[in-house]
Design brief:
Chain B: InterPro entries: AAA+_ATPase, ABC1_TM_dom, ABC1_TM_sf, ABC_transporter-like_ATP-bd, ABC_transporter-like_CS, P-loop_NTPase, Type_1_exporter. Chain B: GO terms for molecular function: ABC-type oligopeptide transporter activity; ATP binding; ATP hydrolysis activity. The complex is a heterodimer. Chain A folds into 2 domains: 313 residues, Up-down Bundle (ABC transporter transmembrane region fold); 241 residues, Rossmann fold. In chain A, helix 23 links the parallel strand 9 and strand 10. By secondary structure, chain A is of the alpha/beta class. Chain A is built from 26 helices and 12 strands. By secondary structure, chain B is an alpha/beta fold. Chain B is elongated, with a radius of gyration of 35 Å. The chains are: A alpha/beta, B alpha/beta.
């Protein structure tokens, strides 16, 4: 999982315009534009103060000091003080102007991306590792805030400073001015070139850190296997090689950095030295005053930072543009159209669906359903191919199939976590595609194979299934999933915090809470993915008994791997190679289908069921 | 220079992007202090519910010293380079003073010697400062990278050496963030903070010294100005510490919420949580926005105040100096140089905020790392290792004896009271019992993931503690429920059991376990990268790969800890077949809650509350009628109809 393997971001580096990328931030910046522009103006004035400072100094030297004018010296000193205070206060004012508004911009962008990813289809999440999304919602956004607060403003400010400063220098003395200004443009160019090389090296070291992190992660997550097989050495070797490679990249980076710093700090000194010598000669021959030389040197020194910074300010613009691209890469993912195309069309579809007569089409019905992953390369066979299945109202259907036969994919279609490629699924005669997702999900409750608990209390986790349910319903749901005993034994009972931030529960306990979550709202349709797999024999038997009552009047589809789970169902559907191969009762299929018997007993034909 | 703080105040991009993704405890990756509690825990905790493990008070400093020691020559060289470089840099204004006071009059008098001297010295200083800076940056990078390499290695080796008991309690997220974000924050300190700090300190000392040399009054004034500045820094440090940690816990809650939503996206969507989540997220996000804004403002306040002090002092000193020049007590050039030096003196002030930020977060990280490194591995390597006696071809299994073994956690709490047990060579023994009965502990003692508190575990008469890890792993292999695949191909993952295995051996192992079909159906068969797209491998299939590893490793003792629970029935049967054929004659300890696995064993142990309460052949125990195993078996038979 090296950084370079993150599929989504490494699309061939398309030609992009930094400016165009950054302009996309405008909708977020717009609400704070007045403050941001004011702040930039204030910054220019404040920066101007640091240029005024040397001028005042020069004036003091040439005027009052030379004349021995005490009052003039006092006035000059006060002026210096005023300029200094103004500089400090103006810079402070600038920061105050943008601090809260830009924190607001960052928060607004973060809230938007959160809202967006929450609603993106599951297929998107299968493709994007959560770490990638997280880094776009945190690191990249922080970077953008910094960019708006600092480089953006100072690109303008420093450019102004350089122009004004050069004007001042030339005004003070044309020859000296030219000598000092000579390196400005080359220096900016050199900085840019170095920055580019440096960012390549940085990128490489980031990738290597990513690889190293992967090795560390794996050797921690797979510690049982490494210890179990005594494989410390090979992992350690991989780790050592990677960390040494990282070290040499870092050293190369430091050489680049050293070179650029040497140029940035050294080069202007040469010209300043030249200007100083020239200045001394001209003061000596009387063509300029000592005050002018002092002021000149001070202005030249004050201009150093704006010049030096141009290179990395431009590089930061580049980085900010990348961050913007990364952010909008996620935001540009289209949300699935949620509601039926138009109310009229929805109603028409509903009417059409209802036409065959409610009785015949009741329950859950798959009609010629085909599914192919949206990102599957063309030419691969569909995962599900022409599924026809009817679960009658109140009936429980077990779904049995070998590993990789598409069971989990099939049940994800019902709550529209994936969308059918063709065909349709109806609930009590209504095509789920004609309902909004929210409506579908209101009718269908799901217990997933991987039971996920959120950082909240047990009660909140269970009631997630039905907010309006009361404590009677909650107690009933816990009883059905046989979770009431262990929940009562938790430190704070149902109010105990669980999930990442709370108590960790065993797999079986989590599975039982996930089951409770599915049944708490008494949904008309229930989809359960191997709901008892993590339970021990005793608990399994008790959950089964309680679940049977719930299933009696619920239309349910239950993925099953074991006979005990199959026995919850009225009928069984055998899924094989993406098609429904057979439907019948457990005993019928045991007798009629070799594959079914193999899957549930492990025996091939002829052998007795033990 | 007055505006660099904001930009520098963040960890650099390289640190802010969780490049590996994954479960790297992002809550902790977010910032310096864990925010949760600061200091040491109150009450009963042993440090595991927090990030701080017990470590001697001076452990962080000792750790740092031990890391620096091997590089002390390099560090010294870097220091010398920096001292020389700063001398060259700070010569500038002094040369301006000399030029104005000496060279100008001399040149006016036709003597160009001083001008030439100033020109040459200035040139030498310019070249010197550039070259020396290059030297300093590369040399200090060498020291710094060497130190980080060493630190990373130490954390890694420590994590590998510590027992599984430790791993279970410390959690993988924390270990990963120790070796990533905590190392990173130390690195940030050295890259950005320490280097800056050293440069700032050296230049401040030089400048003050030069000012004193130019004029003792100017120097004194500059020194005096440090009193209010020091007070300011102290106040800022106190307030910012609180603010920074508040901000990092605020972003941590945002990150946890974000991550939790993404990892549970299926239930989130299926149970229509989006709107509720939006609201909860808004609360957390708003909180972070407020705290974040407050922190930035605090920083602004510091920068403005320090600037105000600095500019006031500069104006005051210049004013005073101007009077003295007018009175003739001070040379004009000295005043000019003094003013230039004062501007430089206060330039680095705002960077203090950033350095403090890095410093605080690095100290917190170092503390956590030191705590981790201070843990003693409780399953040490033997001092005088022995080898196992060779096993005869006709008897591949080994006899295992638990001799007066007992086990309790270090925190107290006895898991297994004293017992003795012999597993005969070549026999399969199944262990059943409720959760928490001690089954897994028994298995882990045999795999030497733990050492017994009392008694010995012997394999063919040799104490497990006397075997080296490779020797032990040739003897005992344990397969657990969680089948983790390492990045790499399927073949490489199977070959983990025997690194020098040929492709034929790998395929034979996969065939024997019934994994060959699904592997060949993968896009690139055995060469499919398990982390790439298209390598969608289900839990059951991962488990089969894990079993293929065992077949290849060919141990004399096999332990299966709930290893078949994620397999479907055909998978389970395949494993049983493989045990009966490929691993025939091995000693096996099987923990399972599926009775189908248990009834094929030679012998069954029923455990309850750490004790073995039933022991016998499956048939014997079933015939017994009123034992626990017989009850279980009846329930299971009923479920099969």
């Amino acid at each position: 999982m090296s950084a370079s393997a993150h599929a989504p971001e490494d699309a061939p580096a398309r030609k992009r315009s930094v400016v165009r990328s950054l302009l996309r931030l405008w909708p977020y910046v717009r609400p704070v534009r007045v403050r941001l522009f004011t702040a930039a103006g204030v910054a220019i004035v404040a920066a101007g103060m640091s240029l005024v400072f040397p001028l005042v100094l020069g004036w003091i030297v040439d005027g009052p000091i030379a004349d021995g004018d005490t009052g003039g010296v006092l006035a000059g000193g006060l002026l210096l003080l005023v300029v200094g205070l103004a500089e400090a206060l103006l810079f402070g004012f600038r920061r105050w102007l943008v601090a809260r508004p830009l924190a607001g911009v960052e928060a607004a962008m973060r809230a938007d991306i959160y809202r967006h990813v929450q609603r993106l289809p599951v297929a998107f999440h299968d493709r994007w590792p959560s770490g990638q999304l997280l880094s776009r919602a945190t690191g990249d956004l922080t970077q953008l805030r910094m960019f708006l607060a600092f480089p953006l403003t100072f690109l303008v400010v420093n450019a102004t400073m350089i122009v004004v400063g050069c004007g001042l220098l030339l005004h003070q003395d044309r020859v000296l001015g030219l000598v000092v200004i000579a390196p400005v443009i080359p220096l900016i160019v050199v900085c840019l070139v170095f920055e580019r090389h440096y960012s390549v090296a940085s990128r490489r070291s980031q990738d290597q850190i990513g690889d190293l992190t992967t090795v560390v992660e794996e050797s921690v997550l797979g510690i049982r296997i490494i210890k179990g097989f005594g494989r410390h050495r090979s992992q350690a070797r991989a780790f050592r090689e990677l960390s040494q490679r990282l070290r040499s990249t870092e050293l190369r980076k430091s050489r680049l950095l050293g070179a650029i710093m040497a140029v940035i700090y050294g080069l202007p000194e040469f010209f300043l030295g030249g200007a100083l010598v020239l200045g001394v000669l001209r003061v000596a021959d009387g063509s300029i005053t000592a005050g002018t030389l002092v002021a000149f040197m001070a202005v030249a020194l004050a201009l150093r930072w704006p010049v030096e910074s141009m290179g990395f300010l431009l590089a930061l613009c580049n980085e900010a543009a990348t961050a913007t691209d990364r952010y909008f890469e996620v935001m540009d993912e289209p949300l699935p159209a949620d509601d039926p195309p138009s109310p009229a069309a929805g109603a028409a579809a509903r009417a059409a669906a209802a036409s065959p007569g409610p009785g015949a089409a009741g329950g859950m019905r798959f009609e010629n359903v085909t599914f192919r992953f949206p990102d599957a390369p063309p030419g691969t066979p569909p995962v599900l191919d022409g599924i026809d299945l009817h679960i009658r109202p109140g009936e429980t259907m077990a779904l049995v199939g070998g590993t990789g036969s598409g069971k989990t994919t099939l049940i994800n279609l019902v709550p529209r976590l994936h969308e059918v490629t063709s065909g349709r699924i109806t609930l009590d005669g209504e095509d789920i595609a004609a309902l909004s997702r929210a409506q579908v999900r209101q009718r269908v409750a799901v217990a997933f194979e991987e039971p996920t608990l959120f950082s909240a209390t047990v009660r909140e986790n269970v009631l997630m299934g039905a907010e309006e349910a009361g404590s009677r319903e909650f107690a009933r749901a816990l009883r059905v999933s046989q979770a009431d005993d262990f929940v009562a034994a938790l430190p704070a009972g149902p109010e105990t915090q669980v999930g990442e931030q709370g108590m960790s529960l065993s797999g079986g306990q989590r599975q039982r809470l996930a089951l409770a979550r599915a049944v708490v709202g008494r949904p008309p349709f229930l989809v359960l993915d191997d709901p008892l797999s993590a339970l021990d024999v005793h608990t399994e038997a008790r959950v089964e008994a309680a679940l049977r009552e719930v299933l009696a009047d619920t239309t349910a589809l239950v993925v099953a791997h074991r006979p005990s789970t199959v026995l919850l169902a009225d009928r069984v559907a055998l899924l094989s190679g993406g098609r429904i191969a057979a439907v019948g009762t457990h005993n019928e299929l045991l007798n009629s289908s070799d594959e079914y018997r193999y899957l549930l007993t492990g025996e091939t034909r002829g052998a007795l069921v033990r | 220079m007055s505006t660099t703080v904001e930009e520098k105040d963040r960890p650099r991009q390289s640190g802010a992007t969780p490049s590996g993704g994954g479960p790297a405890g992002p809550a902790e990756a977010a910032g310096p202090a864990p925010g949760t509690g600061g200091g040491t825990a109150a009450g009963e905790s042993d440090g595991f519910d927090q990030d701080l493990l017990p470590a001697p008070r001076n452990a962080p400093r000792r750790l740092l010293l031990s890391l620096v020691r091997p590089h002390r020559a390099t560090v010294a060289l870097a220091a010398v380079l920096l001292l020389l470089q700063q001398a060259a840099v700070q010569a500038g204004p002094l040369l301006v003073a000399i030029a104005i006071d000496r060279a100008v009059p001399a040149a006016a008098g036709g003597d160009y010697g001083p001008v030439t001297a100033v020109a040459l010295v200035y040139l030498a200083c310019a070249a010197g400062s550039g070259v020396l800076l290059y030297g300093f940056i590369t040399v200090s990078a060498r020291a710094c990278q060497g130190l980080l390499l060493d630190l990373r290695g130490r954390i890694y080796r420590q994590a590998q050496a510590l027992s599984l008991d430790f791993h279970d309690r410390y959690t993988s997220g924390r270990l990963i963030s120790r070796s990533t974000s905590d190392v990173q924050s130390l690195r940030d300190l050295m890259d950005e903070g320490l280097q800056e700090l050293v440069i700032v300190t050296v230049s401040v000392v030089y400048i003050v010294a030069l000012l004193c040399y130019l004029d003792i009054g100017l120097g004194g004034a500059a020194l005096f100005s440090f009193v209010p500045l020091a007070l300011l820094v102290r106040g800022f440090r106190r307030r910012s510490g609180v603010l920074f940690s508040r901000r990092s816990s605020a972003i941590a809650t945002v990150i946890v919420k974000f991550n939790e939503t993404l990892n549970g996206i299926r239930p989130v969507q299926a149970f229509r949580r989006e709107r509720r989540n939006d609201e909860e997220f808004r609360t957390l996000n708003k909180h972070h926005e407020r705290v974040n804004g407050g922190t930035i403002l605090e920083l602004a306040r510091f920068v403005v105040t320090s600037r105000l002090i600095a500019n006031t002092v500069t104006a005051g000193v210049v004013l005073w100096g101007a009077y003295r020049v007018a009175e003739g007590e001070l040379a004009l050039g000295v005043l000019a140089a003094g003013a230039l030096y004062l501007r430089r003196l206060y330039d680095p002030l705002d960077r203090f905020a950033m350095i403090l930020n890095y410093y605080e977060s690095a100290t917190a990280s170092l503390h956590k790392i030191a705590g981790l490194l201070a843990q003693r591995p409780d399953v040490p390597e033997p001092e005088r290792p022995v080898t196992l006696p060779g096993r005869p071809a006709d008897r591949p299994g080994r006899e295992v004896v638990f001799e007066d073994v007992s086990f309790s956690y270090r925190t107290g709490g006895e898991v297994l009271p004293r017992f003795s047990l012999t597993l005969r060579a070549g026999e399969t023994t199944a262990v059943v019992g409720a959760t928490g009965a001690g089954k897994s502990t028994l298995a882990k003692l045999l795999a030497r993931f733990y050492d017994p508190t009392g008694g010995r575990v012997l394999m063919d008469g040799t104490d497990l503690r006397e075997l080296t890890t490779p020797e032990l792993r040739r003897g005992v292999v344990m397969v657990t429920q969680e089948a983790f695949l390492f990045s790499g191909t399927v073949a490489e993952n199977i070959a983990l059991g025997k690194p020098d295995a040929t492709r034929e051996e790998i395929e034979a192992a996969a065939r024997a376990i019934g994994a060959h079909e699904f592997i060949t159906a993968l896009p690139e068969g055995y060469d499919t990268d398990v982390r790439k797209r298209g390598g969608r491998i289900s839990a059951g299939q991962r488990q089969l790969v894990a079993f293929a590893r065992v077949l290849l490793a060919d141990p004399s003792v096999v332990i299966l800890d709930e290893a078949t629970s994620s397999l479907d029935i055909p998978g389970e049967k395949a494993v049983q077949r493989a045990m009966a054929t490929a691993l025939r004659g091995r000693t096996a300890l099987v923990i399972a809650h599926r009775l189908s696995t248990v009834v094929t064993a030679h012998r069954v142990l029923v455990m309850s509350a750490g004790r073995i309460i039933e022991d016998g052949s499956p048939a014997g125990l079933i015939a017994d009628g009123d034992g626990q195993f017989s009850d279980l078996h009846r329930a299971w038979r009923d479920s099969l109809v």
